């Protein structure tokens, strides 16, 4: 294999998505430089910070349909659940209907959806005060049913998590789901909210204390923890061992990948032709590292690879010629020629 390029463009035309339509064009080969790494790091940081804004109202529970409320009016037992009967916990209290209304004696239907427990308590107290003097009323939520979030993917017990008076964060939702499995990719957790998809780096939350990633969940959110089995990088060309490398904890730099593939064979390779081929989502990219100077490995260490990348190390011309001879000439003759070349004959 040999990477052929003209005017820093690929030899082949590749499928590309542009303006919502598929087309084909040659892809530009981009040198890996300090400017490139700085630009891409700024883009990454912008994406990390491009999370949904924090809604302070999410920190306070709002009553909604299907919530079961326990209302106690002191000194008026006739308004409470009959004390002489044993009521099962799941049947105690009163349920907010689909329209957000709650029926209560004397008051009739009262709309409580979207109100906090404190607001609902005040509203009911005011309404009952029209019929009774010095009303002392207590209200609490027995069963939280109106606000839910789904936790799916690589967790031990995926399913629906009900939100309570304690705000539910990303970390708490994962904990409630039994924690993640051994194959979870914590650096690429996806949050689906209001028709949009957000990437959350939970690994950074656990390892670096990045609290910005620990979002408060809201009703209807879907948290998906993907697996990392498919997060691999292919190492081909003049490396010590051609193989597929696993990306662990969301990070694998180009220098780490080359090292894990037992390095670059400088006897048979072209150090100036180390390519990272990235298929993307119908948006292919190709990067080239010129490693003829050892300090280029600093750039390689700062260039992070992504899942499905292919790292290709070009073959030196003399190595290609030697391999051709090995294929068309007898091995004994090739051995003699090699010895002659070594002895300067």
Automatic annotation (TrEMBL):
PANTHER family hit by this protein: POLYSACCHARIDE EXPORT PROTEIN GFCE-RELATED
Name the record gives this protein: Sugar transporter
Topology relative to the membrane: Multi-pass membrane protein
KW Cell cycle (keyword) present: no
Subcellular localization: Cell outer membrane
Keywords: Cell outer membrane, Ion transport, Lipoprotein, Membrane, Palmitate, Polysaccharide transport, Porin, Signal, Sugar transport, Transmembrane, Transmembrane beta strand, Transport
Ranges where the Polysaccharide export protein N-terminal domain occurs: 57-141
Keyword Signal: yes
Pfam family, one: Poly_export
SLBB domain segment(s): 148-225, 232-313
Family classification: Belongs to the BexD/CtrA/VexA family.
